[in-house]
Design a protein that fits this description.
The chain is of the alpha/beta class and 244 residues long. The chain has one domain: Alpha-Beta Barrel (TIM Barrel). Helix content is 49%, strand content 17%. It has ten helices and eight strands. The chain has an eight-stranded parallel β-barrel with strand order 1-2-3-4-5-6-7-8, surrounded by seven helices. Helix 6 links the parallel strand 5 and strand 6. Helix 2 packs parallel to helix 3 and helix 6 packs parallel to helix 8. The structure holds 1-deoxy-D-xylulose-5-phosphate and the ligand NCC(=O)COP(=O)(O)O. Ligand LD2JLWAY binds next to strand 8 and helix 10. It comes from Rosistilla ulvae.
Length: 244
């Protein structure tokens, strides 16, 4: 079975737009779990633009499916992960200027920073996964670093059209096989939607897909009707009690 990890970052994005308490990504994670999520994913960014430290701690305490924490190789965040102990730590490249993660981590050549983070996480008993472009050299280096999983970056696939789409899908298949042959778990994610998920879910031996933006975008849409009806109800109740 291919597991679904639901990324709840953008529930927190809406909350942080007003620096208030709602919507709470912890509540969203609970509902995602009720809906059948096999895991909950979130990205604790250095700039704290969406997920906050408080979310990370409460999520780890309250979620019963596996917790996948994404972050860059920054000492402060690696220390938080070692303290909170998610089931998986997904190391990603991160820049403050980006709107979202733009590419895979580069682990070819000098990867001391990554190797140090992996060691610290492993010493804390946390399984480590690396977010990589579908590039065989990166996968070879990931295997040498001793991580348990690779999450293939599906962003370029998600954006590709026509022949490029077939090419990107083939890269994912070829590199997916390389991940499995090297003895690591195969995960994939980024930019997956209701329209483009099936070819990726059908890649042999893929164990987990992490999907966020598209699910949260759909949740906003399918939930609006009830949210408006609930507000109408509140107003009507008040009007009933105050009208002559
Ligand atoms: C690693 C990855 O592909 C994305 O999940 C990304 O890290 C999510 O971060 P944002 O939600 O800030 O785009
Ligand atoms: N690692 C990928 C992820 O968690 C979800 O990415 P997206 O679906 O929000 O693009």
């Amino acid at each position: 079975m291919v597991e679904l990890g639901v990324n709840i970052d953008h529930v927190a994005t809406v909350r942080q737009a007003r620096r208030t308490y709602e919507p709470d990504p912890v509540a969203a994670a609970y509902l995602a779990e009720l809906g059948g999520a096999d895991g909950i994913t979130f990205h604790l960014r250095e700039d704290r633009r969406h997920i906050q430290d408080r979310d990370v701690r409460i999520l780890k305490e309250t979620i019963s499916v596996h917790v996948n924490m994404e972050f860059g190789c920054v000492r402060e965040i690696v220390d938080i992960a070692c303290d909170v102990k998610p089931d998986w730590a997904l190391l990603v490249p991160e820049s403050r200027e980006e709107v979202t993660t733009e590419g895979g981590l580069n682990v070819v050549g000098d990867s001391k920073r990554v190797a140090d983070a992996i060691k610290q996480l492993h010493d804390a008993g946390i399984a480590v996964s690396l977010f990589l472009d579908p590039d065989e050299r990166q996968i070879e280096s990931a295997a040498a670093l001793g991580v348990g999983a690779v999450e293939l970056h599906t962003g370029p696939y998600a954006l590709a059209k026509g022949e490029a789409f077939d090419r990107e899908l083939q890269r994912l298949k070829t590199c997916g096989q390389a991940v499995v042959d090297a003895g690591m778990r195969l995960h994939a994610g980024h930019g997956l939607t209701y329209k483009n998920v099936q070819p990726v879910a059908a890649i042999p031996n893929v164990r987990e897909l992490n999907i966020g933006h598209s699910i949260i975008a759909r949740a906003v849409m399918v939930g609006i009707q009830k949210a408006v009806a609930d507000m109408k109800h509140e107003i009507e109740v008040a009007t009933r009690s105050t009208s002559p």
